[in-house]
Design brief:
heterodimer; A: alpha+beta; Herpes Virus-1; two-stranded antiparallel sheet; 4 helices; 7 strands; B: alpha+beta; 5-stranded antiparallel β-sheet; 3-stranded antiparallel β-sheet; 8 strands
């Protein structure tokens, strides 16, 4: 069983403090604590996976380890995998190669640990020059906002639910600024 | 899952850093901690099947903030009373702002620090700064974790009796009578 420690002083907390409806004092530093524990805390760590060797001739073997017994196929490419090569993700069994390519292509959103928010970037570019002092910069930022909005329209945005409203707003504002500059230049040159 | 279906549900609490902020999201099989800085977002996932414990520690930040705001409010109030020029309006506005901040801080409730523990890490959930939000999050997490791990057997929460270690006769004599052996001390 793992132990739960006080987050202030690191003292190992007693089971009597677990899942109490009220605050408890840490016996060491007297900090007020509430500890919610779950069954996994009491489980023994799972034994490490080891791949079985091929026992009989003609038995299916792992694609990556020919001398190891295959236990299941990869759900993406169909290659036979031993217990060592099997990676379970979202209920799917994948081989390391499919996992790597899925992560590279951004198809496995559960493996993404960083995303660039192009919609926020485009909107900031479109909005910043609207302040009184920075408006001349819109000559540069408006086309930049338009470029970002169009170029990254299909790029994966935030993992959490986000609409395309920022991109639409950025497009609209950038276009309005470009049209404004166009009208301004046209008026100046014609007069 | 149909395209466009909602995968993540926003949980209460919001942590703000100097140039970033973080939020917690409830996913289908995990808790997502999203930290946004400028135009990028970083994620940490805690799968329900892996969560061992959530430890909440009460802090005194609310009381400290209250004291600072109260002193600042009193100072601005005194300045407001003793100033006769146009600065009086400024001090009046400042006093009002500080008092509103004080009221908001008081109404938001006690502050805390929340840590989530798995077998291999202990991570601070930075969005959970107020106990009210923390309690709501834990209440929403509990059924999901129980669904993934099963119910906790009550006998597991019973305090274990202290382990009595056989000591050499000389060591037994050296130990003063009535001194209990701490249950969480590790002996070779």
């Amino acid at each position: 069983m793992s132990v739960v420690t006080c987050t202030q002083c690191g003292f190992v907390l007693n089971e009597a403090m677990f899942n109490q409806p009220d605050w408890s004092h840490c016996p060491s530093c007297r900090s007020l604590l509430r500890v919610e524990v779950f069954p996994t805390l009491f489980n023994a760590p799972a034994p490490a996976q080891t791949a079985q060797s091929v026992v009989t001739e003609g038995e299916a073997s792992c694609f990556y380890h020919p001398n190891k017994k295959a236990v299941l196929p990869c759900e993406a490419c169909g290659r036979f995998l031993c217990a060592l090569c099997d990676v379970e993700l979202n209920g799917q069994h994948l081989c390391p190669a499919c996992l790597a390519s899925g992560q590279k292509k951004g198809k496995l959103s559960n493996l993404d640990n960083r995303r660039v928010l192009y919609d926020s970037l485009a909107l900031t570019l479109a909005l910043t020059p609207l302040t009184v002092i920075l408006w001349p910069f819109s000559l540069i930022t408006a086309p930049a906002a338009l470029f970002v909005a169009i170029r990254f329209w299909r790029a994966p945005g935030s993992v959490v639910q986000r609409t395309k409203i920022r991109l639409i707003l950025a497009l609209f504002l950038a276009l309005a600024q470009i049209v404004g500059w166009g009208i301004g230049f046209w008026t100046v040159f014609n007069s | 899952m149909p395209r466009g279906a909602k995968v993540y549900w926003r949980l209460p609490g919001r942590g703000a850093g100097l140039l970033s902020y973080s939020r917690l999201w409830l996913g289908p099989d995990h808790l997502l901690l999203a930290r946004t800085a400028f135009f990028s977002e970083e994620y940490k996932r805690f799968y329900f099947r892996d969560i061992q414990a959530v430890v909440t520690r009460r802090t005194t930040l609310r009381e400290i903030l209250n004291a600072i705001l109260a002193v600042t409010g009193i100072v601005f109030g005194v300045m407001c009373v003793f100033t006769t020029s146009g600065l009086r309006v400024f001090f009046f506005v400042m006093t009002g702002s500080v008092l509103v901040a004080l009221l908001v801080n008081w109404l938001c409730g006690p502050t805390c620090v929340c840590h989530l523990r798995t077998a291999v890490q202990t991570e601070e959930l930075s969005p959970l700064k107020r106990f009210r939000a923390t309690r709501k999050v834990i209440e929403r997490l509990k059924p999901k974790i129980q669904a993934a791990q099963g119910a906790l057997a009550p006998e597991l929460l019973r305090p274990r009796p202290p382990v009595v270690y056989a000591a050499a006769p000389s060591e037994t004599a050296a130990q003063p009578a009535g001194q209990a052996t701490p249950s969480n001390e590790i002996f070779p």
